[in-house]
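Methods — Computational structure assignment.
A single polypeptide chain was analysed. Its primary sequence is given first, followed by the predicted tertiary structure written as structure tokens.
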Amino acid sequence: MNRASRQIDLGGIKVGGGAPVTVQSMTKTDTRDVASTVEEIKRLETAGCDIVRLAVPDMDAAKALGEIKKQTRIPIVSDIHFDYKLALEALRRGVDGMRINPGNIGAKYRIKAVVDAVKERGVPIRIGVNSGSLEKDILTKHGSPTAEALAESAMRHVNILEGFDYRDIKISVKSTDVKKMIAAYRLLAERCEYPLHLGVTEAGTYELGTIKSSIGIGTLLAEGIGDTIRVSLTGDPVDEIVVGLNILKSLGLRQNGIELISCPGCGRLEIDLMKLVKDVEDRILNINLPRPVKVAILGCVVNGPGEASEADIGIAGGRGKGMLYKDGKLVRSFKESQIVDELVKELGTFAEPV
């Protein structure tokens, strides 16, 4: 399946309709703490985040959005449950997108007030359905939060918005169960043309969450399903961006940046490979290149040349020295302590001329 979705504009970022798949995260600060929230958003932006979502639990948080918006650059999405007045205030404060389920905010006049406001400002809405928050009647009908139940709930909310002639919509149907999440998105992909926001909710810690998200999100993207993604991890939200970008790079969906590969290590290791890889990751985190560059890090100078032949740049270390390969050919050698500096210098040759 190569799904063609509608396109929406979220603060200048195109989502769907053939636009590049974007990576999102959510701040973990108290939105009412403007300074901490701004600092976290800037860290996310530096890491490559395209869109950021902020929790809006009360009116003070909604009012803080205006100052946060002034001090940041990437599109901001307000995350609101139940209270339509919070949605209206968030819109007055200039948010670029909104996550709200219209069926949960009560009377028809409340829904209409929100729809009228987003129409006026050109702000899209994300309908976000989770396996833990399904309507009681749908849960009773299906007996459990099945993939069909998730899809049915999402389409119910869609129908409410369409009833107000509003279609700047994107949808998520997240579950902690990877198979269920995949099945639910496949159902939606068949039933509507709205852009889909992929994610495995409450995926867990970095290790387990990375695996679950990579399988769930990666499977769907490989099938041509999905327009924007969020990797949900317990911990620093910057990790979510790193994992998300790596998922896109592994599928060839990011046309710039660095793909880092490294050998698993064996008894021939002649260098502290784990430390070397970590040092390289830290140094290249904020390097953005005009095309994909594959970097291979090898743990010995014996097999390094052959293993580096498929990479744009290969570095091997051991016996007190480092060696740098480009397109499979030895370029230069240097002291082991200079490996990271020499790699960063070589990456500079791939940058676009100023």
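Note: The mean pLDDT is 88.
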